[in-house]
Amino acid sequence: MKQFKLEIISPNKIVFEKEIDLAIFPGSEGDFGVLKNHMPFLTSLRVGIIYIYLDKKLIETFLVTGGIIEVSQNQCTLLTEEVTNTNATSSKTKTDEELSKAEKDLKKLKEKALEKLYYT
Q1: Strands 57-64 and 30-34: what pairing?
Q2: pLDDT over threshold 50, residue 39
Q3: Confidence category of residue 120, pLDDT binned at 50, 70, 90
Q4: How many CB atoms are located within 10 Å of the residue 71 CB?
Q5: How far apart, in whole angstroms, are the C-alpha atoms of residue 79 and residue 108?
Q6: Which of 63, 74, 79, 119 stands the most exposed, by the fewest C-beta atoms within 10 Å?
Q7: How far is CA 18 from the centre of its chain?
Q8: Are 6 and 18 in contact (CB under 8 A)?
């Protein structure tokens, strides 16, 4: 098993907590990936999408507007103010009301994200 623990934490709750194979983050100096046994480091994130893989398949994507990430001892922790699961808007198991709320949240977060882009 070549997995490590990923936690995505916002001020309100733990958004994601699971053993995964690979995560790709939007670093402030460029995108980077984290695998098991990655060297320890601490860095900041820019606005972008986080891609999470398990068993060589993309299982989750999240939109973040920035944050701080720490990698140490096969654990990766992301602290962020705003994060939303971009898969939530396409889930067929959600009710129309939940889907509408998720779509509105995603739209709101995308608008905030666009305000923070350096190249706009």
Answers
A1: unpaired
A2: yes
A3: very low
A4: 22
A5: 20
A6: 119
A7: 12
A8: yes
How many domains are contained in the chain? 1
Residue with tokens 């103010």: 81
Cβ pair 109, 66 in contact under 8 A:
no
Please state, in angstroms and rounded to a whole number, the distance separating the CA atoms of residues 41 and 58.
Answer: 24
Which residues span the domain enclosing 36?
A: 4-116
Domain of 59, CATH number, reads 2.60.15.10
* Beta carbons of 101 and 87 less than 8 angstroms apart: no
Token pair for 41: 């480091």
pTM: 0.75
pLDDT in tens, 75-113: 999 999 989 888 765 545 555 666 577 677 777 776 766
